[in-house]
Design goal:
- It is a single chain.
- This protein is an alpha/beta fold and about 475 residues long.
- Helices cover about 20% and strands about 15% of the residues.
- It is built from 11 helices and 20 strands.
- It has helices at about 10-25, 50-55, 100-110, 115-125, 150-160, 175-185, 230-240, 280-285, 300-305, 330-345, 405-415; strands at about 40-45, 65-70, 70, 75, 85, 90, 145, 160-165, 165-170, 190, 200, 245, 250, 265, 295, 310-315, 350-355, 385, 395, 400.
- The strands form 7 sheets. The chain has an 8-stranded mixed beta sheet with strand order 15-12-16-1-17-18-8-19, with helices on both faces. A two-stranded antiparallel sheet has the order 2-3. The chain has a two-stranded antiparallel sheet with strand order 4-5.
- The longest helix has 17 residues, at about 330-345.
- The chain starts with 11 loop residues before the first helix and ends in a 58-residue tail after the last helix.
Length: about 475
Amino acid sequence: MRAQRRPAFIGLLGILAAAATATVAATSRPPSDDPIHKIRHVIVIMQENRSFDSYFGTYPGADGIPMRDGQPTVCLSDPQRSGCTRPFHDSNDLNRGGPHGAWAATMAINGGKMDGFLAAAERGRRRCADLNAPNCFGTTEIMGYHDSREIPNYWKYAHDFVLQDHLFEPVASWSLPQHLFMVSGWSAQCSTLGDPMSCTSAIQRPDYPKDFERGNARVHEPGRPDYAWTDLTYLLHANHVSWAYYVMAGTEPDCANNLDACPPRRLAAHTPGIWNVLPYFDTVKKDGELGNVRDLRDFYPAAKNGTLPSVVWIAPAGDYSEHPPALVSRGQAYVTGLINAIMRGPDWDSTAIFLSWDDWGGFYDHVVPPRVDENGYGLRVPGLVISPYARHGFIDHQTLSHDAYMKFIEDDFLVGRRIDPRNDGRPDRRPSVREAQPLLGDLRRDFDFGQRPRPPETLPGGTVWNGISAQ
């Protein structure tokens, strides 16, 4: 893959940027004695809208829902009803979450009391035209939790590999900012097209696709959305590290205002959106890497044939995402199918799979998010690490976020270089280098690189997506 050509005559800033890029490329070969390099494929599977307590709140040994004698000790006051509501086991396959934008997170966290989830859910529900519609926000449903009866494969992965019980969404907001953070460590709004220095933090309303929000009267100038700041693929490209972002064709459900129930919007590799953000990044376009955003159907033969890129992200469509009202069982079957495909292929022995959920979805969680900079963290979400080198039955209590995925990728493939505007060749105004935050844990602790690679552990119930959306 050829590096981007640059003009012969550029200003001082361009010269410094080119020099920094050249330095990255020249030192791209990692030390061979670092055991992290046994991992030659990092695969991030990102599902949607579940809090840690909603999936693993009763998992043995995890920092789960406070209990006494098997009964929750927490009880949240309900503004619309007398008394309070405790977390409860929810056996329903279809759940209705709550609003999960920045305002809802602030209300739910309530200054660290973690008792405003029902108030946020009821504020959102009042905006539903049909309170019985499945895509209307729930109320008491947000206090429900699942266990091995509904999500046996997820609990099996936790039992046999690694469960992370202090993994937080990067920012307390909805899907679009989370996906921007996942690939770039920032969510911003850029006032000038193509100028990274014009970008400022935006955790609720970054530039979003035209006509994305129903009733949006905002004028979209040509070239918008424009994500001008640096993303991880810029460094991967400079270091000749292969990558792909696999997208399932279907729909996306979320609204930018997180109050109205939105009509679904199309999602595909060629239709960028809130779960498919890389095509809007200037670096991806300028580096000629738009073709690395691919249809999910391309993933399965690559896994089978051993031709997976070094870094892979996988995004679902709404029906398979577990984003309410999508069925939990359908999402689990789809994820199991992805993991089974990897395990059956020749790349398994050198792969690390990071499975998580992009945001909390309005569901209850009892842990107060720590603060790392002006933008984050947000609420706790589930995290699993699945690899032939993953520790067996390990619960990782480190403070983590999806920033840790970028940190691991950078340590493995980029000699520890970060998306850092001081030395990555593309200055921007991000408030911090997320991967370098002292509070952020190290995913290396989830691995035992001294053990023999574990054999694959394919699970029943996995499905392979064939390009046909669920009905």
